[in-house]
Amino acid sequence: MTARADWEALREAAREAMSHAYAPYSGYSVGAAALVDDGRTVSGCNVENASYGLSLCAECGLVSQLQATGGGRLTHFVCVDGKGDVLMPCGRCRQLLYEFGGPGLLLETAAGILPLSDMLPQAFGPEKLGPGKLGPDTLGPEKLG
C-alpha cells in the first residue's frame, strides 16, 4: 500500500468530481476520489434518477472509472459533499469500497484518517466465498472468455 498520500490533492479531485454531479432531485451533490496502488487517481460523482432507486452514488462512478482505466486496488479515499466538506460513505458504498480496496483502504473522515476495517468491521468480502468461487482476483476477460 502507498505509504503517503497528498490528502489535499485528493480532496480537490473529489471536489472537482462533485462539480459534475447530477443531483436535480435532492440537490445534494457528492464527489469522491481515491488513489490506486499504481499511483493513478480515480474519481466519481453522484448521478440521480427520477426513479430515485436507480441513482448512482459517487463511489459507483469511482469504481467504474477504476475498472475502465485498468483496475487495481484502492489505497486512499475521500468523499465530499456539495460544500466540499469531507463526507462519510454510506454502508452500501463502504461495502463497494471493501471489494476494491479491502480492510486496509484508508479513508479521510471527520475523525481523521481511518482504515476501512474501522468503518466496516467484520466485513463480508470475496474471501468469504471460499476457494473456487468468483471474486476480483479470479475475474477478468482472459478468465471469462
Major sheet: order of its strands? 2-1-3-4-5
Instruction: Using the alpha-carbon principal axes, give the shape.
Output: globular
Computed over alpha carbons, the radius of gyration is 15 Å
Structural class label: alpha+beta
- Could you spell the SSE succession in H and E letters? HEEHEHEEHH
In total, the number of strands is: 5
Low-confidence stretches: 139-145
Largest sheet: 5 strands, mixed
Task: Count up the helices.
Answer: 5
Report the average pLDDT across residues. 90
DSSP strand content: 15-25%
Whole-Å distance between the termini? Answer: 31 Å
Helix percent band:
25-40%
Short account of what is shown:
The chain is an alpha+beta fold. It has five helices and five strands.
Written overview of the protein:
The chain has a five-stranded mixed β-sheet. The model is unreliable at 139-145 (pLDDT under 50). Helix content is 29%, strand content 18%. The protein is built from five helices and five strands, in the order H-E-E-H-E-H-E-E-H-H. The chain has helices spanning 7-18, 58-68, 91-101, 116-119, 141-144; strands spanning 31-36, 41-45, 74-80, 106-109, 112-115. The protein starts with 6 loop residues before the first helix and ends with a helix. It is α+β, with helices and mostly antiparallel strands and 145 residues long.
Which terms summarize this structure?
5-stranded mixed sheet, globular, 29% helix, disordered C terminus, alpha+beta, single chain, 145 residues
Topology overview:
Blueprint: H1 7-18, E1 31-36, E2 41-45, H2 58-68, E3 74-80, H3 91-101, E4 106-109, E5 112-115, H4 116-119, H5 141-144
Parallel strand pairs: 3-4
Antiparallel strand pairs: 1-2, 1-3, 4-5
